[in-house]
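Project standup — Tuesday

K.O.: blocked on the structure for the chain from last sprint. Re-posting the sequence here as requested.
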Amino acid sequence: MDNNLKTILVTGGAGFIGSNFIPYFLKKYEDYTLINLDKLTYAGNTRNLSEVINHPRYIFRQGDICDQVLVSRLFEEFSIEGVIHFAAESHVDNSIKSPESFIETNVKGTFVLLNTAREYWMEAPFKYKSGYEGCRFHHISTDEVYGTLGETGLFTEETPYAPNSPYSASKASSDMIVRSYYHTYGLNVVTTNCSNNYGPKQHREKLIPTIIDNALNAKTIPIYGDGKNVRDWLYVTDHCKGIDLVYHEGDSGETYNIGGRNERENIYIATLICELLDDIASHVKDKSLNSYKELIRHVNDRPGHDRRYAIDATKIETELNWMADENFETGIKKTVEWYVHQFQLERN
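H.V.: unblocked you, prediction finished:
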């Protein structure tokens, strides 16, 4: 490998956000090699990275972040100088049914990565080894660690943690472990907590891909409860740009909330997507339907369903000059167009 290149370990890079981040990062920077460690669970797919599969500065390794021997070997083999940690179990419904894997991956896996980085980069607490002084660990987290909001207010970096699902509890736990490695050992860490992401390459279990996929296949579009649960939506490329900024310019030990300032009710999202599909994909619409909106059905709410999330992104906006390029209406149009294209490719 070129000794002039810095090598970053990206975990979970075959998942939704990671597979958008890696091509973005490789295109923007010429002085990094990215090592993608991904277990390739159901949520990860190497096809998501087809555009970089033969890139000279991209290396894929299949494996589990909980595997201490493997993680240590990667640090040694590639002289890892940074970690950008996406890998996580992230589906709330799955965490309610089977919480064990969430604790294992999100808590233990984060610990294994942190401890390996500390041992490889540092010779004592608050003392980095020569040549490793600039190494950084960036932990990607979620706004769900903050719990739920009423009709007003926003999550800030000072909002007390109040996770309400096994998923969010596991992410809150990993955030605290990251924090402890900064205060106890002086490890150079940053954490970002993002609002709901959407865009190309997202797994079809998530809300927006489910709506699109079900509509295109003339299946019922399920909306929990009254559909008035509110989320703050962040286009995935805007998130990637925020991660890039925090990794390079964020202050060590700090947390940065990344949100799109795009609060929307779930029922609005389903209706808008159907209207876009009526325009973009009318040629594949089931002949029995006048509009895709006819497929929307309200179903029983899930346990512990947080009513509203919304992030105050003032800190990253003012300190690092980050700003979302997409509002929800521009981003969702791009997203729907991408999924319709994929649907047509699969049919052919």
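K.O.: great, moving the ticket to review. The chain has a mean pLDDT of 94. The longest strand covers residues 32-38.
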